[in-house]
Amino acid sequence: MTSVPTAATSATPTTGEVPGEAAALARQGRFPTDFLWGAATASYQIEGAVAEDGRTPSIWDTFSHTPGKTENGDTGDVAVDHYHRSAEDVALMARLGLGTYRFSVSWSRVQPTGRGPAERRGLDFYRRLTDDLLARGIRPMVTLYHWDLPQELEDAGGWPERETAYRFAEYAALVGEALGDRVELFTTLNEPWCSAFLGYGSGVHAPGRTDPVDALRAAHHLNLAHGLGAQALRASVPAGRTPKIAVSLNPSAVRARTAAPEDEDARRRIDALANRVFTGPMLHGAYPEDLLADTARLTDWSFVQDGDARTACQPLDLLGINYYAPAIVSGGRVDGPRDDGHGASAHSPWPAADDITFHQAQGERTAMGWGVDPTGLYDLLTKYAAEAPGVPLLVTENGAAYPDAPDAQGRFHDPDRIRYLHGHLSAVLDAIRDGADVRGYYLWSLLDNFEWSYGYGKRFGAVHVDYDTQVRTPRSSAHWYARAARDGVLPPADFRPEPDAG
């Protein structure tokens, strides 16, 4: 197994203005004219209809129905009923002026049990959704995997087993064959760090397992699945079509609490576990040597076979960056709960790093308890612009949960979210100004939804959803974002829509 990084994979930019022109516009406070303004969702969080048209259970169905795993025992059984309301939701996107929509496909909806032929009814739903988007001039971006592994594949071992990566490639081919005639943008995986380390390390996400070696095995097989899936997509789309392949990572903007050597070493170690465990294989075709050394007391990494890292290193047309808050670390363990922002558990999502302490930034926090710090997004965009030159970047998730309530007229004014978006999109402009080739931004999320183990208690949506009636009401932030998308310039942070805005 090689562990010496090679040069970053390059790809010819595929959309957007040349970086120099974009930087000049950014210096004027303007986004490129063809900047992608979008919003993102995930299948299990919004679709509902969990037992309709041939869909079988995923690990999130099982996990959310297990007592004590989600707040209030909430499940995605109904969620926001997008499976039956997709046309309404697409019409809402059009009214808000979105140019692109990133959604994920439910694996167990289109390939029940994770093996065998496709379920036509499931694929037909995504065909209709895609056609509705295109009819309204909204560019679809399809994410193949947003954490909802078919339960039967988990029963066979899940992501710690190599076979799951091959099953993913088969599934990717089915989606490519079905949607490749109308979809150009594909993301293989969303946040594989969460799938591996929260699902198999700390257990706060499905499937709820708590084995650090399984978490590392899962990370590797997700890397392999990305590579195999990208190959399968490119081979399966109809003749004459060329898909643009991305992966959406959630790299951590890791910062040492002080300049002390032990804190700097903590930063290096967490950077390896949060970031380079994926970017090493995906961008460079190799795992970083320090990651292997740091985790050697747990595993010899013999589950990595010759050629795996090279397979993971497929040419990327775009690199997706998801960002919410930075991580601040120091060397040495202190008493008390682990404050890494990834849920409460007696088990750590950080293998071989129990002697590292996490700290939240001082100042404003969102309803998730995450610090508000747009500089972390700037740091990541400029970092990966330098690390993967020639690979355009997308912000494929960014947003915030805040509590709110309607006013006397039933409107939802959310000034905290507007300030959050203003700050983070300003950071995107700063990164473009300084040479980062950022092609678009996807707000998380379009709609309030099932927020994983937090249930329905945390609301990220630019659009409020009444979970009893399923009525959608755009918040002030949705109108702010629509204005930004229309003008290519950020409205003021104290923006408030006209009273009759619908």
Essential attributes:
alpha/beta, 502 residues, eight-stranded parallel barrel
Helix content: 25-40%
The overall average pLDDT, rounded, is 95
Please tell me how large the radius of gyration is.
Answer: 21 Å
Find the count of extended strands (DSSP E, 2+ residues): 13
The major sheet is characterized as: 8 strands, parallel, barrel
Strand content: 5-15%
Global shape: globular
Give the structural class. alpha/beta
Order of helices and strands: HEHHHEHHEHHEHHEEHHHEEEHEHEEEH
Strand order of the largest sheet: 1-2-3-4-5-7-10-11
Give the termini distance in whole angstroms.
57 Å
List unreliable stretches of 5+ residues.
4-16
- The number of helical segments is 16
Family: Belongs to the glycosyl hydrolase 1 family.
Organism: Streptomyces albidoflavus
Enzyme class: hydrolase
Region (Disordered): 1-20
What are the SSEs and their pairings?
Layout (H helix, E strand, L loop, with lengths): L18 H9 L8 E5 L2 H4 L12 H6 L17 H14 L4 E5 L2 H4 L9 H16 L3 E7 L5 H5 L7 H17 L5 E6 L1 H11 L9 H25 L7 E6 L4 E3 L4 H24 L4 H6 L13 H5 L5 E5 L4 E5 L24 E4 L15 H13 L5 E6 L16 H19 L4 E7 L18 E3 L6 E3 L1 H12 L15
Parallel strand pairs: 1-2, 1-11, 2-3, 3-4, 4-5, 5-7, 6-8, 7-10, 10-11
Antiparallel strand pairs: 8-9, 12-13
Helix pairs in contact: 1-15, 4-6, 8-10, 9-10, 10-11, 14-15, 15-16
